[in-house]
Amino acid sequence: MFGRERKGFEGLLKAWKGLNCTNEAPKNPVLRRVQELQQLTKQLQQVHPNVLAKALKRGILYQNKEIVVINKPYGIPVHGGPGVKLCITDVLPILAKMLDGMKAEPLHLCHRLDKETTGVMVLARDQDTAHRIQELFKQRQVEKRYWAICVGSPKPTEGLVDIPIAERKVESSQVHVKMALAPNYRMSEADGKMIRVRRHRNAYMAVTRYKVLSSSRSCFLVELNPITGVKHQLRVHLAFGLGCPILGDHKYSHWGKLAPQKLPEGTLRRLGLEQVKARHLPLHLHACQLVFPKGSGSGEEKIDLVCKPPRFFTRSLKRLKLEFPEQE
Which of 39, 216, 284, 290 is the least buried, fewest Cβ under 10 Å from its Cβ? Predict the structure, then answer.
């Protein structure tokens, strides 16, 4: 490996672990914490595609003759777009050759995760397998489990959110688009009774099970089981449906503006941050488990894919004094 790629690869691995990659770390603990968080995205966007492909290969969670399961890192989008220097799709041909030789067919995406979401991601070795797995997701036969650190308490502490979601334009000083709740019912101003409203024509059915696993003052560790797969579903249901946005979710912590998440003083103190630096907090949402059903074409009874959260997530749990759950 060339020296530049070697350096980039080592930097990528350190950034993955949430470590400080520079030789001179700031003495101020707040500034040092900010520097660690900044590196999560900057380092990943600057590496060579070969370096990212090799890092993904080293972090493979599972593979057989049909699928390859990777641990998706924070800050790397699945698809390209405006301002995107590097994405998962870009390195799939490289990763396939690293695994199966120079004549290998490029790996295929079976589903997607948001740029800021980490965890279990399934790739297929051929197009037919990709289509079959995509159908399993569409038919809701794949069990999905996420962990999120939330600011605020979901009430009740366990339940189901069944509220459709639609994309809406936000008219503010900065006009932007967000996914938003599009409920089928609202409270009547006249008598306080629930009345059915006309369905939003662009709304998608969205259903999420949730359960609080651990609590500590203003922050909570929540397990999420999305039944459907609408864009930003978990983030919207937590922020606007339950009133407890995910830690580091600067987009959905406010409705009418684009601004860093406002955090309680106690939370900032435990995280080692000041409010003016809160914009550097990464989204604490991790896809920790996927379970494929029996007879899914894998040749096994079922496939249970588990992925540990990244180090920045576990460090935040410890700082916030949230109890880390045991993986099954």
Answer: 216
